[in-house]
Amino acid sequence: MAQDVHHSPLGKTTEYVAEYAPELLFPIPREPKWRELGIDPQALPFQGVDLWNCYELSWLNDRGKPLVAIGEFAIPAHSPCIIESKSFKLYLNSLNQTRFASREALAEVLARDLSAAAGASVAVRVRTLDEVAEEGVARPAGECLDELDVAIDCYGPPDAGLLACDRAQVVSETLYSHLLKSNCPVTGQPDWGTVVIDYRGPALDRAALLAYVVSLRMHGDFHEQCVERIYLDLKALLAPEHLCVHARYVRRGGLDINPFRTTHPVNPDNRRLVRQ
């Protein structure tokens, strides 16, 4: 059952459990934040997914030998709940001394437990290290904004008024910045990331867009809501033919979180970036 985030293990001293304990998962309802952003939960203005990657996944095979892998979890953006990240880590650590007959058996258990916590079907892949190594480290698509010479004095709260566009010029382009930063709303810890914006619509003023991204710098919110805020602000400004906003956050505790929101069905690239 979903609970208030302040009852979660975030910011608290926690005993690590090394045997299977799905009850450690802590769901947080999306609806309060959706309503805060003016989103009707019955008519979401986006589709998408939250892609989580786990680099600390380990369990025992049926002979007691430890195995390691990288987990990939795709939580639908329409799911009633997100899963609080520390509880996610604690749950994954509870698999360390648990035996599974195969990777497939482990993936089935992960999908069952995470789907129950999120309230929607969660897709799971348990990937070998070689599989992930073959993909290498990716660069974001598009053009980077970060070398623009921009004077900035707004670091929060996020200010959509900073955004600007040229309505006489319609473009299709992909822009990105490594300067995305926000703070955990419970602990205040910094969350670092890269944001990628792909759209077709009136041309964004790039300096204004960079200033807007930086205006989230001291903002306290979860990764998912930060991306939804960016998506909504751009959608309101541009009324675009299509819009995708994808954030690639730096991992913490062996987990990275990569929310993806879009107007149209798109298969997001989940290759890790250099800081992940």
List its salient traits:
about 280 residues; alpha+beta; two-stranded antiparallel sheet; 6 helices; elongated
3D structure, described in words:
23% of the residues lie in helices and 32% in strands. With 276 residues, it is of the alpha+beta class. The strands form two sheets. Strands 5-3-2-10-9-8-7-6 form an eight-stranded mixed beta sheet. The protein has a two-stranded antiparallel ribbon with strand order 1-4. The protein contains six helices and ten strands; from the N terminus they run βαβββααβαβββααββ. The chain has helices at 31-36, 85-93, 103-118, 129-135, 206-214, 223-238, and strands at 27-29, 47-60, 66-76, 81-83, 123-127, 143-144, 165-183, 190-204, 242-249, 255-262. It is elongated and about 65 Å long. A hairpin with a 5-residue loop joins strand 2 (47-60) and strand 3.
Output the radius of gyration. 19 Å
Percent helix among the residues? 10-25%
Largest sheet: 8 strands, mixed
Number of strands: 10
Shape by Cα distribution: elongated
H/E series? EHEEEHHEHEEEHHEE
Mean pLDDT: 94
> How much beta, percentage-wise?
25-35%
- Structural class by secondary-structure content: alpha+beta
Poorly predicted runs of 5 or more residues: none
Terminal CA distance reads 31 Å
Number of helices: 6
**Physical arrangement of strands within the biggest beta sheet:** 5-3-2-10-9-8-7-6
